[in-house]
Give the backbone structure.
Amino acid sequence: MLKSTQIKDILLKLLRFSIFFGIGILLFWFVYKDQPIDEIITALKKANYLWIIFPLFLAILSHLSRALRWKILIDSMGYKPKWTNTFLAVMVMYLSNTVIPRSGEITRCGIIKKYENISFTKLLGTVVIERAMDFVMLFILIIIVLLTQFNVFIEFVKNNPGIDEKFALFKKIDNLIIVAIFTFLFFMAIFIFRRKMKNTIFYLKIKELYIKFKEGLKTIKTLEKKWQFIAHSFFIWIMYFTMIYITFWSFEFTANLSLLSGLTVFVMASLGIIAPSPGGIGTWHFMVIETLVIYGIAKHPDANAFAFAVHGSMTLFLVIAGLISLLVLPILNKKNKNIES
């Protein structure tokens, strides 16, 4: 029988899922509310699905590379997890992210902790390094797109005045003053907390967790396979871009778009994934559709059909692969335990 704390935990998880899933569905409805379904179905029938399915194999390569990159970081701390476990944990991460945004990072660390008995906080430190590297890669791509396709960004903002208004808010000096005040108060609170709680068990436990977390962050400095780590980072993002660009060939109206156009669509789609929506539902569609419109693709039904087909296929793939990984993990590790014994 479930305890009250377990029931509360389950209810909180269901609540989080309902909120984020509701946001995703609302955004999805907002994007497609003016698009007749029969027009999308007609456009989808004309697609060459070979160029939608093939990128899924590239996705496997990118996920395998991400797992190997993560293993490099974990190995540098003196642990030797099985690459199969890191790969399956990465696949479950993507499944988790399609349910609750950003939850996958916690999930994959929990999986490796369970099956490899590695400190959760140390694993979390390596994930922070990974994400920092991913942001660097995305930042580089954003700079490339801004230098070569700046007019597209300008047109995107003009076509979506609501976004322009949101950016305008950050230009007000009042907001900067508010941020400065809250930052000052935040650090003051930390200083007071530290002095009053310094010798308590709670503080010592937090300090212990922080030390382990910091140890994970320091991994990058002592990394033996630093260039392999960097190479994997480039490979992952090259695969991400190639996956999107190849899907252009699945529809006649996107088949002639250039590499730079593909890179712009990819960057805008990546920004859509960052938004707090499960699996980028709605936000990914919006960013891709509005960018394709700037390149002369008709919004109804062409751009809508493209976003629906590409995002739908990738999401379905991640869900299926994640569920299979969840089933395989305990079986694979049980088999390994029997061999060791």
